[in-house]
Amino acid sequence: MKKLFLLINVIIGLILNSNAQWQHSNTGLPTNTSVKDLVMNNLNIYAATSNGIYISTDNGNTWSAKNNGLTSLDINCIKISGQNIYAGGYGGLFLSTDNANNWAKISNEKVSTMTLNNSNIFIASDWASYGVALSTDNGNAWNYVNNGLPTSFIAQIGALTSLNNYIFAGVMNYGIFCSTDNGANWLLTDTASLNGNTCWFWDFATNGTILFITACEGLYKTINYGSNWTNINQDSTWQTDKKGLYYNDGKLFTAVFKYNPNKVHVYLSTNDGINWSDESNGLTDTSYVNSFLISGSDVLCATYTGHNGNNYYGDGVGVWRRPLSQIENILEMKENTSAVYPNPSMNDLIIENSQKSTIEIYNNQGQVILQQTLLKGKTHIDISKLKKGIYIYKLYSKDKIDVSKFIKE
Asked: N or C: less crowded end of the chain, CB within 10 Å?
């Protein structure tokens, strides 16, 4: 009987995950190109890579280089404001005003993170000593805005973002700082609620007035601009993976890296981090995830090489893509909200539905042995002629699919 239960669970897993996985989408990208950021403007997708800026005009199917004027090709991040496209890397900050066809350098500072707030550009770096720099005139002039930031670790700012005119900076070994006056002054937000997890900050994401941040050992959120932070890890094994954090249309994606073996996991929450679903199927075990992007009916993620000591790995680098419908359908199948009873049953299976649906019943070989249309309300299905055993059912309705099993006595 235990073997039969195991077989049934395997079949359910196959049904849930059949053809539902990430696929590489690297056509046009050079081999072993690390992708560090993805942004979208109109119908164009821009990728910041270790080989410059690449653009896709067909939803990530193919990519072409847009590097004219870039004096350094290792790009970390991209931001877009109107016709202005900003690309930051350790070789400086670059600006394009013609859809990335031509670039001009507007700052020599190393840039690993940046944020835009109205007409203001904030840049910072995890490997430079200038702290936060601000330009209010599209990069023509820059000022250093560091009052209140710690001077001893001012070089290592891993993340910047803006939220309703609040500017946030994640500073290594200190915590998350906030400015309410366009960077003129910075105040440390509540560090006690971070439980000492201040060694590094990777990325921010926002949802209205909710701010999320990834740190070395976890994921946190605040609903009051940093007055306190709440840990929203699924479990104690989470180590958030670089800048892999993204919110769009009710979906919060994050990436978690786990050692032994080296494997990245992509997680999705549809309720601001209260519950999580592992959506990693198909991702190469050794790729880091640095960025997500929802484009049309797909979700894309950017991956790059990582390292553990002196050993570099990353055969899964590049851009990966997956239809959102796959993820949404699997989430719906996992939720199983329909009432099906009694279970176990000898003669009659009763299904209660709030709308018209269709049921399919599978034997332990994965074969469909019954298919029936169900009307709204209560339906009785005669299972008296079925052999004793465990059966799987799939219940299709207008906006969800439920999958579960029942026992025939």
From this structure: N
For strand 339-341 and strand 175-179, is the pairing parallel, antiparallel, or unpaired? unpaired
Instruction: Give residue 360's identity as a one-letter amino acid code.
Output: E
Instruction: Count CB-CB contacts under 10 A for residue 67.
Output: 19
CATH number of domain containing 348:
2.60.40.3080
Considering its fold, how many domains does the chain have in total?
Answer: 2
Q: 156: which 2 tokens?
A: 């290592």
Q: Where are the beta strands (DSSP E) in 147-297?
A: 157-163, 166-171, 175-179, 187-188, 201-207, 210-215, 218-222, 230-231, 240-248, 251-258, 263-269, 277-278, 288-295
- The single-letter DSSP state of residue 192 is G
- Helix axes of 324-335 and 2-17: crossing angle, nearest 10 degrees: 150
Q: Nearest 5°: CA angle at 159, between 95 and 125?
A: 60
Last residue of a domain, one of 262, 296, 324: 324
> H helices within 130-218, ranges in order?
none
131 and 200 share a domain?
Answer: yes
Residues 31 and 171 grouped into a single domain: yes
- pLDDT tier for residue 342 given thresholds of 50, 70 and 90: confident
How confident is the model over 250-273, as pLDDT tens digits? 899 998 876 656 677 889 988 888
pLDDT score for 221 = 92
